[in-house]
Write a structure and sequence with these properties.
Helix content is about 25%, strand content about 20%. By secondary structure, it is of the alpha+beta class. Strands 2-1-3 form a 3-stranded antiparallel sheet, covered by helices on one side. It has a two-stranded antiparallel ribbon with strand order 4-5.
Length: about 130
């Protein structure tokens, strides 16, 4: 990518804000600065940068939902399970893991994971391959 010249004119009230102009080469940048100075802009407000645009690659991580193989997932947990779940413990988790592993081997189930949405747009649809 060819180098471009950025001419930035800072706002007199707030130097963090201003106008940015990107031109193709240094000669056009110099002409723009000359025009700004002739128009009465203070030289201290004008900054000139040279650089090239960089490529950007965006990737996202897959969403994984772990579910137990119990058929009564919709049922309310018993008192011991609810108390241990609140403490971060899982009752008899080794048996559930083994049971879910054998069930997943015998029959493949699709897991419906919750997708992240903001303003009605799913997160995964915001990133399409280039």
């Amino acid at each position: 990518m060819p180098e471009q010249v950025m001419v930035i004119v800072a706002d007199p009230d707030d130097p963090k804000h201003g106008e940015i102009n990107v031109v193709e080469n240094a000669q056009k940048g110099a002409r723009l600065v000359e025009t700004l100075l002739e128009a009465g802009f203070d030289q201290a407000r004008i900054r000139v940068f040279s650089g090239a645009e960089m490529d950007m690659q965006v990737r996202h991580r897959p969403v994984v939902a772990l579910v137990s193989g119990d058929a009564n997932e919709g049922a309310a947990p018993s008192g011991d399970e609810a108390a241990n779940r609140d403490n971060g413990n899982n009752v008899d988790s080794s048996k559930k893991t083994v049971a879910s592993a054998t069930q997943s081997e015998s029959r493949k189930e699709e897991v419906a994971a919750e997708h992240y949405e903001r303003n009605g747009v799913r997160f995964s649809t915001a990133f399409r391959p280039a």
